[in-house]
Design brief:
globular; 5-stranded mixed beta barrel; SfsA; SfsA_C
């Protein structure tokens, strides 16, 4: 998945009100960028961090920049836009490049199911069980090489796990797919200390038959693509 417009580097001044970030461009101008991430962004919103912004000339948009990446200035990047995983995964699903989710002819997004929920992807095909796939963007890293989810309490995430568990019990495939938007991690685990309720819902879902998948991403200022699976350590 390539970014529609070339990204420009900047320095983060502050992130506030969850969806706003003041940044300083290379020419010294200070601008406000849209931050498409409702999470805590723990460890990713420190003043002075190098970031990459996507400019736009859409007259309907008040903010002319969107925050896309954190550049750790050691060769590694973290993607902060939570809409990217779904777009990148869809392209990989259509190309048949997702291990364990290949061979489905039907790929539909945002389909209503459960109790007033929408599944990220519903995969279908002749002679195959429908596969309900929920996608989560993973950006937290507190120990070298270890990605964790969630980065804050997520009641909505726990609800999604309960919905997936119900699908698994009814005989469908149910998949919790964690996409790690970091290039510096090789393993994945739960941040149980940050949200014990999510960890409990995760274990219940796994016992119900929900499949757990996790892949990393390849990230550059040009775009984001899926990388290889990560080791899951729960």
């Amino acid at each position: 998945m390539r970014f529609p417009s070339p990204l420009v580097p900047a320095r983060l001044i502050r992130r506030y009100k969850r969806f706003l970030a003041d940044c300083r461009l290379g020419d010294g101008r200070e601008i406000t960028a849209h931050c498409a991430n409702p999470g805590s962004m723990l460890g990713l919103a420190e003043p002075g961090m190098k970031v990459w912004l996507e400019p736009n000339d859409d007259p309907a948009k008040k903010l002319k920049y969107g925050w896309r990446l954190v550049d750790h200035e050691n060769g590694h990047f973290t993607g902060v836009d939570t809409s990217v995983p779904n777009r990148a995964l869809r392209l990989a699903l259509e190309a048949g490049d997702v291990p364990g989710l290949q061979g489905y002819a039907g790929i539909r997004a945002e389909i209503r199911y459960g109790e007033n929920s929408r599944i990220d992807f519903l995969l279908s095909g002749p002679g195959r069980r429908d596969a309900y796939v929920e996608v989560k963007s993973v950006t937290l890293c507190r120990a070298p090489g270890l990605a964790e989810f969630p980065d804050s309490v997520t009641a909505r995430g726990a609800k999604h796990l309960r919905e997936l568990a119900a699908m698994a019990r009814s005989g469908n495939r149910a998949v919790m797919f964690f996409l790690v938007q970091r290039t510096d991690c090789q393993r994945f685990s739960l941040a149980s200390d940050l949200d014990p309720d999510y960890a409990a819902a995760f274990e219940t879902a796994r016992r119900a038959g929900v499949e757990i998948m996790c892949q990393r991403t390849r990230i550059t200022p040009d775009g984001v693509t899926l990388g290889p699976p990560l080791e899951i350590v729960i």
